[in-house]
Amino acid sequence: MGHLFDDPENQAHFFALLAEDLVHMVLLIDDQLVIRYANVGVREVGGYEPDDLVGLPAADLMHPDDLALAFSSMGDLDTSVQRQLAGVPIHVRLLRKDGTYGPVELRGTTFLADPQIRGIAVKVRRADTRAHVDAFLDLLVTTDESEASTVLREIAAAAHFELRASGASVLWGFDGSRFTRVASFALLAEAEALLRAADPSLPWLRAAAALADREGDDPAEPFGPNTGLSVIAELADAADPALAALVTRGMRACWAFPIPTPGVDDRAVLVVWRPFAGSPSYTMQHTVVRYGRFVELALQRWERERQLRHAAEHDQLTGLANRALLHRRRSEFEEGPDGGRAYTVVAVDLDGFKPVNDRLGHAAGDELLRVVAARLRHTTRHDDVVVRMGGDEFCIVTDAATSPEDAAELADRVLAAVAAPIALDGETVTVTASIGVAVAEPGESVDEALRRADAALYD
Known about the structure:
Elements lengths: L7 H14 L3 E6 L4 E4 L2 H6 L3 H4 L13 H9 L3 H6 L5 E6 L5 E10 L8 E8 L1 H15 L5 H15 L4 E8 L4 E7 L3 H6 L8 H11 L17 E4 L6 H4 L8 E7 L8 E7 L7 H32 L9 H12 L9 E8 L1 H8 L1 H18 L5 E6 L2 E6 L5 H16 L2 E3 L2 E3 L2 E8 L6 H11 L3
Antiparallel strand pairs: 1-2, 1-5, 3-4, 4-5, 6-7, 6-10, 8-9, 9-10, 11-13, 11-16, 12-13, 14-15
Helix pairs in contact: 6-7, 7-11, 13-14, 14-15
């Protein structure tokens, strides 16, 4: 029996079938840059029928801002350059039949010298996944955690397109019973509303619980869907009525994949909603693991940023805020509809610290400062700014004391807290404090109020 390609007609038939069966879009563009052939892949990529495109100028399909890139790349497709650029795609935006532009990847091969073809064959495939991953990486390095939802939405979008989903979500911010942060793409409102629920039977909460049960195991072990930690839920069988009701909206399955976050005090889950029943294939499992790594990367980056910011804005010895944090937060007190909020600055200078430090040593002196710092925190509210200014000097900025009477009451509480006996190295020592108080004038800056409070220390 002869080989398929022994017969030229069989060979031509094979390649014709191959071209028509591709999910990628294949175009043949002539030397006037007019489309002369389009395969059925145009349905998947652009929503067209092949006959819609034949006879159109190729430029009509591209975003105007991408024309220079596309046509300069076509100009490079001579024989010598083509060999060097083999396999190197270009990325442009393609006009879809619905009038929107979508990211695509183009690869061209020139047949201009072939007298029977005289054209350029262009393979086009959707690049939604690549575009969203690129956007994720760009946002991750150019924004901070305040844009977390925007950043992680790009991963949800990439998963949505690559896994042919009905929507996808990244969940994080676990508070012990539910997820408080959600970044979704192309998801029905009914499904989105369920993601913050606290019902432990929901797939994503079951996945989070499974991951928690594995805490302490080897962190290097891959956490893919094949580890037994993921939850694959057929919505038609779901116990939750709201979850089961999504079947009527075209959803058939919910895949919940827990994401390990070493070094981050949080849990995260990637949720993929599918229009078909069934479990993820082996290839899909690896796709999920890859996107899970991206989420892990983002959460770890933001955790490191928090740690660095905390170290930069807090006193290493006492854990109190330092001048840098006071500088950042002063706008909270200075800005407002009437020129700023009412607030008070209290300056605190310890009396008797140096003798204790000289007699008992620096370690005892450090412990005394830590005790005083803790007492100042306990004397004030969580939202107040308690700062170690340096040495044995502290200050408090609060909007809870807005009158001279309130400020005097706060000063009395601070004096009493500092003066309480302190046990150090088997001894009981006592220090006192000098207090300076400044109730801020309307529009007065924190720096000005602090100078007045410092001056009041010596009145």
